[in-house]
Fold these 3 entries.
Entry 1:
Amino acid sequence: MREKLTIALAAAGGLLLVYDLYQIFLVLPDEAMQGPIYRILFFHVPAAIVGMVGYFVALVLSVLYLSSKDLKWDSLAASVVEVSLVFSLVNIVSGSIWARVIWGIWWTWDARLTSALVGILIFLAYLMLRRAIDEPTQRGRLSAALCIFGCVDEVIVWKSIEWFRTQHPGPVLSIRTGGGHMDPAMERIFYLNFLAILLIATALVLIRTRQEATTREIDSLRRLAHAM
Amino acid sequence: MKAFKQAFSVARKDLALELRTKESVNAAGAFSIAILILFSFAFDPFSEAIHELAAGLLWLTFAFAGALVFNRGFARELPNECLDTLLASPLAPSSLLIGKAIGVFFLLLLVEVVSLFVFGVFYNIRWWLHPGELALTCALASWGIAITGSVFGALTVNLRLRELMLPVIIYPLLVPLLVGAIEMTNALLGNQPFTSYEWLWAKVLIVFDIVFTSLAIALAETILVN
Amino acid sequence: MTAAIEIAHIWKYYGDYPALRDCTLSVAEGSCCALLGRNGAGKTTLLRILAGLSHFQRGTVRLFGTAPRTGETRRRTGFLGHGIGVYEDLSARENLQFFARIADVPNARGVVSGWLERVGLERVADMPVRQFSRGMRQRLALARTFLHAPNVLLLDEPFTSLDDRAIHMLSQLLVEARARQATIILSTHQLREAMAIASHVALIENGRLRFSGERTQAMLDDPALLYRLHAEPGAA
């Protein structure tokens, strides 16, 4: 059942992505101000949202683990963090390429860039911490604690640096601005591509969680063999 | 109230131990002075540019010297299995964490005062013009470093790679705190009183301290007991 | 007599290794239970669980009806592990005063002086522990364990590497503790000492409880009897 769901999600995401790529590169015209490079937006923004949301999903899962001590939540949290990190990397790499073309520099110490980078560093530390601990319950306990601190810190970084310095373009989607910033045809493709990326991310999380579950199963079989 | 009394007992014990051995304060003090000397070769110490760099330089020095202090915090409990003894005793884990942070806090302040004197001499910077605001900045930022250092010192105390993991976890978390401390100190070293901008950063530091301290108390049992 | 310590069907895993397998043991108030077994049998793990230092995966543990690790349970418990649990750079007096403060012992100063005298360290009370001999450290550790008059004592191999004076002192302390209805669980290799003090014995082998019951005269006469009767065949 779960396997079928994974395949269905991945297939739907993949097909949608092919359609979006066709639209983005062959149908939609260049943007008036930025030229062809604006197309990065279709990947840059969804990746950012998937990455950020992932960290906070991991926060909820970590709290669930600590309250239930059920290792299933721990493996789910770890999978979500791993996938989120990949999308965060896509986010800042694509952003850097865009910035090089539009601003002429690869990087600037802007609020969004800084908080994205700090998030990546914190959750890289999360994965490193997981690798440094062998005992599953200890690993779950300590990495859940780090996840909670990391997410809270991420909020503080975001809030504090926002009014410190901002150079990043403001919101363009009509749900944030009330319309008028983005051509409706472009915005439609943007949402479709967001959906495609979300589907793929979910499929990846399901695959990773399944691997974690298999690892746990092997582990408990080994325990059983010991107990006999 | 009793929790506070217990925390102070832990802090008092740690400070007594540190006064006797001086292991981390000596290391941290020597480290900060060495860094300040090295920086004087990296930049021209009497140029105007140093005024713009000074605050950042100071807080980076304090943050790295701090690692030498909070690294020792829980490592000190390992010989003779003192940590197990404390955890099996009536002492609450949250009091243990807060007590450790109080100890680290005072040691950090000590290192900061010494470094500031050395800094004033080497770089001809008059840092004492707004003592109240400087004390506030140091207190708020040092408590943040102390509580974060103690939480993650406790979290990594039983790991093989303890000394490697600790800085990797701590410094990204300290980013908002250090940015705030640098911005506030910047104004003070330029002989400017705090404007609303610096007070805004002071609020960030206060929020950081309150949030991290509350989380530390809430998660102490989770972090310390296997 | 009511049971002071109730352990029911507990399982404890270290990674994928089951250190305790379905252990059930009940210790009556005021009794002294000697935990016997070879190295790695699970004695230390069991004591750490009772002291609230270690979580377990299945089963229940109750000390006077409450779970281990609650503040109340820890206040009642004295724990002596493999380490002596005192600070090398503090003096004997400072060590005891610190532990008295965190345990909220009333009249700490007087109690600490009393204990220093009791374990024969009053003349070196203000010397740092670093300069103590092995025997002196162990006596200090005993004072630290009994300082807050615990009514549950969890002692992990307390006799190992004690000198004669300390062994005598510990035996004396345990007799006194039992006289005030304290419950004692101690793990040990030293069969002779254990049999002399214990009212009950429990044998652990490979994480399983092989035997538990009253210590009989036959065991006192022949300390190895228990191993011969109940040890896993082939494990010896």
Note: Chain A has a mean pLDDT of 85.
Entry 2:
Amino acid sequence: MAMLISEFFTWWYGAGWSQTITDLKRRLDKTIQMFSIPVILRTLFAPWRRIITPPGKSLDTRFRSFIDNMISRLVGLAVRLITLAVALIVVTGVILVSLLVIIVWPLLPVVVFVALVKGFIR
Amino acid sequence: MNEISLNSLRAQKARLAKAVGPTGYKLIITLVFLLLIAVGVLAYAKHLRLAYFLAAAAVACLVFALWYKRDLAVLSPEGPGLNDRLDAAVLTSLDAKTNITAEAIWSQLKTNWQLLFITNHLFLPPENIGRAIAADTLKPKLIWPEAERLADSTGRGAIEVMHVGAALMMASPTLEQQLRRNKLQKSDIAEVLFWLSRNLNLSQQRQSFNSGIGRDWSFGFTNLLYRFGYNISQEVEKGGYFSWLTNSPGVNSMKQAFASGSLAIALIGEDGIGKTSHVYALAQSLLANNDRNYHQIFEIDPSIVVANANRAGYIEQIVNQLLHEAAAAGHIILFLDDAKRFFSEGTGTFDISEILLPIVQSRALPIILAMTPHDYQMLKATKPSLFNLLTPVNLSEPSETDIIHILEDTALGLEHANKVLITLAALKEAYRLSGRYEHDLAYPGKAIKLLTQALAQARDGVVDITSVQETVEVAYGVKVSSAGADESDILLNLEARIHERMINQNQAVSVVANAIRRARAGVASPKRPIGSFLFLGPTGVGKTELAKALAATYYGSEENIIRLDMSEYQNPDDVKRLLSEGRNETKSLILAIRQKPASVVLLDEIEKSHSNILNLLLQLLDEGNLTDTGGRKVSFKDSIIIATSNAGSTLIRERIESGDAAENLQPLLIEDLMKNGPFKPELLNRFDEIVVFRPLNQNELHQIVELMINEVNNVLAEQKVSVSLTDAAVAKIVEKGYDKALGARPMRRAIQDSVENVIATKILDGQIVPGDHLTLDAKDLG
């Protein structure tokens, strides 16, 4: 039994902690991937769903296509910015939770001990 | 170190994990929640002392649950030593209190699912294996290093139950004998072990694809493609397909072709080789690459296009819109499976080459066209401009090892879907027999097709070697399984059965029967036809009749005879006709044998055929196959080849008349044929037997008449009428029906003229009515 308890503490403050940090990193990567953040940043000003008007020959049609394409790009930009804003909130949340887990992890066994002591001295 | 320790810290952790189990884990997590709620309630009610105790208990349970989930339940290998690598199932199944003998190890592990997987797929009862291991008194000291070696070679870090079990089985000499009795060998144990571990490794590698919500926003809409096609990438993304083909040469070639700027790929391979599977694997490979996971491979379904085209020219309009939508979208790879359907006008097909050409020329859209080598060559001839723009990626048949692996993976899916067990021996038999009998598909498709068909022959939920053999026997009419009791009876009494319809020629019947028995008992070479005979003798002595009798007796019907009059193949060009694969060629031996591989091939008057055909016969007798005009091999290994010839008839007649026995004529005749005849020595040497038919004597001719009268009676039996002949009548028919040059050949005509005509007249006159028996004398005959 003593060997098992010693093994538990070795794992908790060694492999267990580092494995948790690795898992949290993976979770953060997945979240970034879920919102396609690299793709969105790369195509921030791209037209929405490639909807473009080819430029005509006359000045008037060229101007119209420029306006149309500008609108398509603005729609795309708006959708992407909104997505980025949501992604920023979610990613920040994930980072904060991860940091919290990393800090709390080593404290959990201590919490058991402290709570027991507190209970006894009450 | 060759001993295991069941009291190690690792073993204790394994036992603790087993004691908790998944149910215990769930209970602990539930307890954590309940305790935390109780802590909240108690804290609110100011019962702080109890709240602290319960909080300590909740956190302790949480900590233990985390330890269980992330360490105890996983129990990863902790080092290179034997005791550091033993899997939890091994450590917890073995009893620390009993003496660890090989027998005890087997007995304690045999119910583990991994060992059941191995024993089930070898179709060996675990109890029999246990008895064999007990009989051999194997030393565990020798087993553990072998289990370690197997764990290393299967790419598994831990030494699992399957490794220990396989090591035990492979070390047992007694079991090796059992395996041999089941037509298995030691390497088959390793084969099933690798089968299981490969799939365990694959399921661990299986990844979920998450391309993200914003991926498609930079690309165009694909509504039409969804309406007329099928998104392969989406299916892969949803987890409907997972393959190890992603690193195959075919997929790598396609990726390299795209990377080097080729946007139109011709994926070339025979039907069944796995062209579609390669495209699915390409989709999987692209999804796994975060920089390229936006690519979507769409397959166009021509039948939907045709079904929706309700007016002339609409097909072209739909296809045009589809291609432009795909090109405009910017992330589509178009896949045209069986591409010939898109380049020819017909039922369910249409020609889009003119629409496709500018798209390919302008490099606006990556496209994969799957086709057979034949279709690729047709494209070269009919659409050279499109052909020149394609980058060919050739798929070749996988190796035997890879085909067996593919079959193993397929079998798992079939087992799951059909609730059956498919043995390893069945997979190997499917590989072997599909190679021999299925000529329309390439590997692995043909083996998968046979395996799927064999599901219908499963007995008690097991698809074994017999199921596969029976499937082949039903589908192709060949005999591939060992002779059963009925067939053994036929084979042992083959001479008697043949003599039921053939008079005398004892030596000829005997050599043929012996050759057939050798083939069916598995003594003869399986790489050649079942039997090959050259029948020599004058006309009308029973050569063709013996061939027919053989077809009827051995293959069950006289219909199983492919008869070619070789006098029709006298020109060099006739070789092409004989080997033609074209459906319209009625004189093609290739077509006939493909339709009926289990047949007597009767080559009448072989000496009259062109020497090129005799050379072909050399290959046929030697290798048991011929190659058709399309380059595909066709097997004659289930056929009996009989060539007949009148060459040497004069010599036979002279010798028989001077009193020689037919049995003694063979050497003389062979010598004569080599010197003066049309046959080269190498051809004569390749026949299993050269059989000399002697002219029939009077007594035999009488018996032939009686046999023919029996046949007439068989026909009359329906009308309840029978006929018999007096001796004088028989003698008259023999006199009328025998010709020195034609032998007994005119006999049937004589029976028809003398007997059948008389009976017909009497039936029509009402002179004989049902129930009558008619005896005809010489004077009654017509």
Note: The mean pLDDT of chain B is 89.
Entry 3:
Amino acid sequence: MALDDRKSDFKFVGTRPDRPDGLDKVTGRAKFGADAYAPGMLHGAILRSPHAHARIISIDTSRAEAHKDVKAVVTRVDFSDKVEFKPGLEGEFWNVLENVMAGEKALYDGHAVAAIAATSALAARDALKLIEVEYEVLPHVTDVDKAMEPDAPVIREGAADYSVPEGMHPNVVRYHESGHGDVEAGFAEADLVIEDSFVTEATHQGYIEPHACLATLGNDGKGELWCTTQGHWIAQKTCAALLGIETSQLRVTASEIGGGFGGKTTVFIEPVALALSRKANRPVKIVMNRSEVFRATGPTASASMDVKIGMKKDGTITAAQGVFRLQGGAFPGAPGDMTAMCAFAPYNLTNVRQVGYDVMSNRPKQAAYRAPGAPMGAFAVESVLDELCNKLGLDPVDVRLKNAAHEGTKASYGPRYERIGLVETLEAAKAHPHYSAPLKPGQGRGISCGFWFNHGGETSVSLALSEDGSAQLMVGTPDIGGSRASMALMAAEVLGIPYENIRVTVADTATLGYNDVSHGSRVTYASGLATIKAARSAVEKLCERAAAKWGIPADAVKWENGHAVPSGPNAGDFDPMPLADITADMGSTGGPISGHFEATPEGAGVSFGTHIVDAEVDPETGKTSVTRYTVIQDAGKAIHPDYVEGQYQGGAAQGIGWALNEEYVYGDNGRLQNSIFLDYRIPVASDLPMIDTVIVEVPNPGHPFGVRGVGETGIVPPLAAIANAVSKAAGVRMRQLPMSPPRILAALKEDG
Amino acid sequence: MVEVHLWSGLRSLTGGKQVVEVEAATTGELLRALVRVYPQLQAPIDAGVSVAIDGRIIASGLSEAIPEGAEIYLMQRLRGG
């Protein structure tokens, strides 16, 4: 996207005004997914497979249907299986359908097999017991390495795509290989080569708000859906395809969202509620409980990885190679390719090769989780780098600086970088008091870099001015990280009116053109760019109206600080005209003044971060405490610094959970053993230190204000930074996450 | 002619070549030309690719101009959380 007028001097952008949703959230006025009600509403409940892998022989719903409180029962036959509808039920749509309601086989513990709508939530749950399902239990596999072995049970024959080399197990469904140079020659040049293997477990995004929706679908094919989601257009498109209705006939409204982190970028209960509503001819509400969230919504992939890096005595990396195997549940989609492409991206490498595998297993369908795939790869790569620094007696920040990618570096995934800010984050780390602070006995310090691409995506924004000079801005990206505030700041900057005079609304699918999901750290970048362009288009109209009032040519008017002012020697001598004076009578000077913008912005800037972590380990209990944490990350330009810092801290907090405690634990029977928060341990406030932040600003050349996304990069370095700190504190290299107390004790024991 | 760098996993579809040459002035023309010369590239392109032009990643647009002598990389389309 051509950017004619880059801006670097700001009045509103970079300030920290109150959040627009603050009052709603602290008073309970905000309406989340479960806060919607409708007259005559029924409650839905879903029957789930207790088996990790089983053929469904029969489902008898007759006893449930006969129950007085039950108004509808659905199974797979109540969804579309038509391929003629465009977009048809193939590819990912088919996978989503198979995930929201099992077909011939139940593919994981928790897989939906039938659903009921009844007059109360309790009645619906009770009536599930009346459904009789006959299963033929099949062998299962939940471990990524075992799922690739020759004798592993086949989850679905024919799911592999073009990329998979011949001879691989049918559970390997996608293969990625990239790199450049000659790694063998590079390893031969090294003074020290370290090769090691690493494992990470699946973790859940752990959003506080479970999935919830209220759906209405009539037999006329017209529907309404209210749901908690990161993207209501993808919900609209997917549900319409799965129900066999026209996309435009389904209006979807996004509720306030209680966290998503990538896990709400697809649908789970929404098509089921719509199918129940169509059958019962009544609105149907479904709210998941936490156990359902864990068992049947997307955790991240788990990973098994081999990394080999060669280094000279002066710290120069001569070659790097990684093999990353990720399982993403019983469907294609584990981001092994992204892991591979991101793993070595921070470094300027002459010889690099990376391989990624997407492997199916009998687990729930993985969903995106902040920078999907990148944190695992960084864990493996940055652990090996740390070990090289230890063995060669080199400073870990200096070594990273020596090898850091910069503008013009050929990235490990291919092209050359534009202007990037990795070096600036490393220099800030080196200069930060944390890096030189003394450690107490028993403590260790770790650092790690991290990379994420960031994304643009389809974006539509509309801005309308009111007669009193205030503005309403409609965006289509659910606010998962403070985007209403940052959009208002960017609109204020262009219009020159106060932040408080702009109300930002997340519009429904009937109100705006298509918007891609709030993911990929794209919202401040893409919706922000669209907001700036929409506001600029309104400003052009404001100038035209002022010119008409003054009786001078439109091009003789310019916009300054919220006023139209005459420009140039022949423009005449007029007092600046404030925005509100132009909008006051806009109805009679040409009509309403609005601005809008629709595009897929193509200038998202990649971003880097460097984290410093201090940790201490209790050798008796194996408990790890993170005692100090500093996040340094390039934001391009921080629009609302409070929210940027919040994203940095959130990434670190979730990374601490992933590194130390969180994991999916499966029994030998393939059933998830820890599907509630008591057993699945996420960090709480008392587990966390103050997380210090440093915002580095190296403007993205692809955004008018220089914005890079900030939502995802922050979760890339923590796993490795914490592992490096813990390994130093414990005196033994930790190669498996989470580094829970039993695993630490085992490592200490093994080390003698 | 434009030199297009592929990721190495695609070599099996181009007779072992990792850098291929096609005639194209826009991203859309580039993708069409790639399939014309190497029909097996249809599958990865359908699965989703991005085109990096001198380091700028064009996620999906078909009308981005490709300047003379630009460094072009085909990349797997990115996904985010």
Note: The radius of gyration of chain B is 12 Å.
